[in-house]
Amino acid sequence: MFRRPLLRLALFASVAATTGSASAQQYVWSVPSADVLAPGGLLFEGYAYWGLQGPDAWYVGPRATFGIGHGLEAGLNLTANVTPVRDARLELALKWQPWKSADGRWALTGGGIGYVPLHELDYVVGGFGWGHVTCTFGAGTSLSAGAFGYSRGVIAEPARAGVALAWEQVLRGKWTFAADWMSGPEGYTTAGFFYEVNPALYASAGYVVGNEGAGDGNHYLLLALSWYPR
């Protein structure tokens, strides 16, 4: 279990965001996606978590991502817990795709996030690393499987490692369904839908359920917007 209510959200605040049928995206839900922004591409996101069992669980954050080229993208995130504990941290993210098959069906992707606490967090610096293999096949379906690890103090007192799975399915019209799972007592399962408002704007809504403590309120509604200005 987490050491305090804040850390119930820390895992997803560090990696959760939005997705859609766009040409690139940072994450599925909690699991980073196999898409990488084209050189010079920009992505701006905003998201919020709402604990439905009471008005005292809000977590919000903006994110900006830039396509570097050569299979690289970098992101700068600011996450803040509004209630019940007020805190904030800066997150520096990097994604790299060193290999993709000629037919585009298979991809190997990895990356990491460095955490810099700004207010009311116990660790000095923290980190998250991940890697996975993705297979894309028939009718817009993609599956990813891989592993992740957190440094000590980020989501629990000891360092944590585990496995991660993700599934994305493009539906009819402008809708996409996606679900993912991260293992461990601090992990979560998330599922939801994404809608293409226009080619540059995507809206998403999903539900987050903790692997442990769901009966005690460890579940949240996630709402987000993604904007691709170029």
Describe the structure.
It is a single chain. This protein has a twelve-stranded antiparallel β-barrel with strand order 1-2-3-4-5-6-7-8-9-10-11-12. Strand 10 and strand 11 (201-210) form a beta hairpin. It has one domain (5-227): Porin (Beta Barrel). By secondary structure, the chain is mostly beta strands. The model is unreliable at 1-24 (pLDDT under 50). The N and C termini lie far apart (41 Å). Helix content is 5%, strand content 57%. It is built from one helix and twelve strands.
Main β-sheet, spatial strand arrangement: 1-2-3-4-5-6-7-8-9-10-11-12
Most strands sheet:
12 strands, antiparallel, barrel
What is the helical fraction, as a range of percent? Answer: under 10%
The number of helical elements comes to 1
Uncertain regions spanning at least 5 consecutive residues: 1-24
What is the total domain count? 1
Distance between the termini: 41 Å
**CATH H-level homologous superfamily name:** monomeric porin ompg
**Secondary-structure arrangement, i.e. CATH architecture:** Beta Barrel
Share of β-strand residues: over 45%
Describe the secondary structure blueprint for this structure:
Blueprint (H helix, E strand, L loop, with lengths): L4 H11 L26 E9 L7 E12 L2 E12 L3 E14 L5 E14 L6 E12 L3 E10 L9 E11 L4 E8 L5 E11 L2 E10 L8 E9 L3
